[in-house]
């Protein structure tokens, strides 16, 4: 049995080596390797007598000409591409700024609504409502807890020599594992980089970005959790903590857990609720062909006979 406490848990971090990783591991095709071995042994090429003919020379010149034309065309279009790219980046930054401003305004309006609602409700009812909002993630909460910090490792040190623990960058499944094990350790409220988690929150990849709900988050990643005093000890023994320590040891990724006093976690955005509605039954003619009252009329919505 291995002495490594995380040996049985390393498979939790899902990562599949890509084509480039395999290429770096085995850069030389077996056929070329055999030809190189034969040349080293005999001191001559594997196919003696091969020479460059006129046709081959013309092909080489033609390929060089086409490469030069393609290079000139690419460099000529580069300023336009750079300008378009910078324009898109500026639009994204502007939209992000507008979104942040609207989110701040929404928070202000929510606070005003809460004040008006608490003034209209009684003391016990307002306290019960606040407890429900805190439990569902729709209310701001404060308290002591734990902060788990993850930082990407140095670039270029992916899994070539890291066994099966995956890349040196934080991936979405790392945040999923940390959040799930914090819930299991007794957390009452969790936020990732200020994005509050609820029962309907998702943590996923979108291209190269990690999304928490619909908001992208970037490193360093801080998973803040409010809970009982025993939460840190229970989390330290969890599967994700053991896995991330192994990843940090092998790839250079930074992983740390610390206690935090008086944490403040924001409220999650208001969910968009959907309500089920009864299907509308087809209406039946109120009278028969002979003018008498029909027997198959639609019932009234209330079901009463008044």
Automatic annotation (TrEMBL):
GO terms for cellular component: plasma membrane. Residues 280-306 have a biased composition (Low complexity). It comes from the Bacteria. Keywords: Membrane, Transmembrane, Transmembrane helix. The chain crosses the membrane at residues 49-71. Pfam families: DUF881. Residues 268-306 are annotated as: Disordered. Gene3D superfamilies: Protein of unknown function DUF881 (3.30.70.1880). Belongs to the UPF0749 family. This is DUF881 domain-containing protein.
């Amino acid at each position: 049995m291995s002495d490594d406490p995380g040996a049985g848990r390393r498979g939790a971090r899902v990562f599949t080596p890509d084509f480039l990783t395999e290429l770096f591991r085995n850069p030389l095709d077996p056929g070329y390797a055999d030809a190189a071995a034969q040349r080293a042994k005999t001191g001559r090429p594997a196919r003696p007598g091969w020479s460059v003919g006129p046709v081959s020379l013309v092909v080489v010149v033609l390929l060089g000409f086409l490469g030069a034309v393609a290079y000139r065309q690419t460099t000529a279009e580069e300023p336009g591409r750079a300008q378009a790219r910078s324009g898109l980046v500026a639009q994204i930054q502007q939209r992000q700024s507008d979104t942040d401003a609207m989110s701040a305004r929404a928070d202000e309006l929510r606070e005003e609504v809460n004040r008006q609602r608490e003034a209209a409700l009684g003391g016990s009812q307002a306290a019960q409502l606040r407890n429900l909002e805190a439990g569902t993630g729709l209310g701001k909460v404060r308290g002591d807890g734990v902060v788990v910090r993850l930082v990407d490792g140095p670039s270029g040190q992916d899994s070539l020599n890291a066994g099966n623990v995956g890349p040196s960058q934080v991936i979405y499944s790392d945040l999923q594992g940390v959040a799930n094990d914090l819930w299991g350790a007794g957390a009452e409220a969790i936020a990732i980089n200020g994005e509050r988690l609820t029962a309907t929150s998702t943590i996923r990849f979108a291209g190269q970005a990690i999304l928490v709900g619909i908001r992208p988050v970037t490193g360093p990643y801080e998973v803040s959790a409010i809970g009982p005093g025993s939460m840190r000890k229970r989390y330290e023994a969890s599967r994700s903590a053991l896995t991330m320590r192994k990843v940090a040891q092998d790839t250079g990724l930074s992983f740390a857990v610390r206690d935090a006093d008086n944490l403040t976690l924001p409220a999650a955005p208001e969910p968009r609720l959907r309500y089920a509605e009864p299907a509308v039954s087809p209406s039946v003619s109120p009278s028969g062909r002979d003018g008498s009252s029909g027997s198959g009329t639609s019932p009234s919505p209330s079901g009463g006979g008044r």
